[in-house]
Structure formats: C-alpha cells, structure tokens
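Progress report, Aim 2. The chain analyzed during this reporting quarter is listed below.
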Amino acid sequence: MKQSIFYTRLFLISINILLFTPRCFSQHADSSLIASIEKIKISGYVDAYYARYSDSVGTNNYQKFPDISPKSNVFGINSVQLTAQYTGEKIRAVTTFHYGDMPSSAWSPVFNLIQEANAGVRLTKKIWLDAGFFKTHIGTEALLPKDNIASSLAIITFYEPWWQAGLKVTYTPNSTWLVCLHVLNGYNTFVDNNKSKSYGLSLSRTLGDKGSLGYYNLIGDETPENIKGTHLRMLHNLVFNYQLTPKFKTILGVDYITQKHSKITDSTKTASVYSAILTLRYQLKPKFAVYARGETFSDKDGFLTGQFVDNVNKITGFIVSGVTAGLEYKPTDNSFIRLEGRELMMNSNQQIFRTNGANTNNRTEVMINLGIWF
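Predicted structure tokens for the chain:
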C-alpha cells in the first residue's frame, strides 16, 4: 500500500509539473525549454470487464491462466494506466504506471505498479540506445486488449515473457526493416536471479501497407544460483500479420521453445514447447467487426507450465487447445466494446478444471470488455 501511494503521488506531481510549467514560464522561459515541454505527451487507458467462467475457483479468486478479465461473476478493471512520454530529436523516455486485476494477477511482484520505464539516446541517425524497464519484445499478441484483435490472451502469451529489464539497440536502416538487439536480466523478470544475462533479437519487415513479418527470440539460462547444472532456454517466435482484403485481416504466430536438461524421462536431454495461434478479423460495418482465434499449446515436459500428476498418474506439463469468437463495436477510434467467448480444452487426462462438482478437462469463458484510451 505504501508503495502504491508513493508511485501515485510521484505520478501526480509529474503531471502537475508538466501541465503548469508552461503557464508559469510562458513569457520569460527560454524557447528551448518551451519546445521541450511541448514534446511531452500524457496518455491514459482504462479497461473494464465482466466475465463468467465455468471453472469453480470461488468468488473473487483468480482463474487459472489469470491475465485479462481474470475473475468470474464480478465487475472489474483489467488495467487503469497513465503514461508520460518524451520524444526529442536526440533523447526519449517513457514511463507507464498501471493498476488493476491484470497487474495484480499476472505482472511482476517486484515493481508491480511499473509497466515500463526507460530512457534512450540517439547514437546515430538510424541507431537508438534505450535502457530500463520494458514491455516484452516477444509475442504474437500484445499485453492489452486495445492492441489485440481479441480481448483474452492465448495460453502461449501467458507463458511468454511479459516484462523485461536491460538495454536494447534499435537500428532502422530504412522504412521497411527494423532490427533490435536486447541484453536483459532474464526471462520475464525485472530483477535478475543469477549471474548470467539473456539475449534477444527483434527482426521485422513491413509488407507495404498490407502487414508485416517478424522474427523474435530470447536466449538465456534462468537456473537459480543454488541449483547445479544449466538449463539454457531458447525461444523463437515468428509472426505474420496481413490485411488480406480491406475488410479481412489475419495474424499467424508460431512459437518454438527449447530448454536443455529438462526432459521428464531423461534429465540429460532437451525438452521443447510448441504453440501456434491463428486470429482472423472481419469488418462487418464501419463500427462492427467479428473475430475468431484458434490456438494450440504443448509443454509436455512442464518446464514452462510446471509439472503435475494427471489422471493416469503420469507426470506431465500442460497440453491445451482453444477456440475463441467475438463481436466488437467501436463507438470511436479510441474505444471499443467486445463480447467474447472461449473454450479451452486440455489433454483428456488433464482434468485441471472443476464444474458442477466434477473435475473436467475443459473450461468455458464469456467476457464483456470496454476500453477507452486518450
């Protein structure tokens, strides 16, 4: 609570300084200071929801795979956030504070109120160096509903890194290509848990005004210092985003992740995770659209999801597929209302859900989301 009050006061003080400084110094301040202040942008986002889940986890408890709309039969806030961003010719910085059910259920427990906070300098005309806390560079889907076709997140998105700390070098050789090199504390962490660092690459190419093709990776060893051995993890993420027609959009994402010395049957061998997401969106009317998503995810050795004993007494990790469908209404360009349903289906022996007093391998979800940003 003290940390929350501190960050809230800090952000309000920053906003007051940004808003009132131009008034106080408009007649006498140096013109360069006024120009700098005009480069500061304040933005915000609020995402409210109501959801129902067939899995019986109890009132006000977070569902399994808690991220977007994580509570059943309650009205809640996924995220309320404020961003201060400065963009200059040679320097830039951004800070975002967030609060709500999504940060509480799925964000870092350390620096929980910070979504991102980083600063950068331009090294050359085409190269930037940024350092600090970042949102992830990995993933077919972004973190927030406003940035995705669907409101809920696919299972692979939940297990990919969401936040990261370190530095990145961004190179834009032209308007078509973007290259970023990342040096990070680790996989989904602000604070490092060992002496090794993780390394990542972002490589994307625009396909005219139709879409883009991107490859993203992350390589590192997250083995804690008190555990012997190494467990080098390599994540590969390929994303194809394309506007097939003026009304029809598709996004395809494929992930392949390996980790050494992690097979359940033989700890000397490398285990793997694979996942695929296909999301389709069709614009019915200027303000109405329908969408659908199919997903599959397999972590049979459990190095991402954790290991458990299934219904036939076999040690395993999660194997799951899902189907999502929804309707979106956009009253304005900076708002949306979505009605969405999803069915998650685990492997037949993985009855991790409970419905009507019985264990089951599937879960039904229905959610309504309303988002507004400025």
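The mean pLDDT is 92. The longest helix spans residues 2-25. These observations will guide the mutagenesis work planned for the next reporting period.
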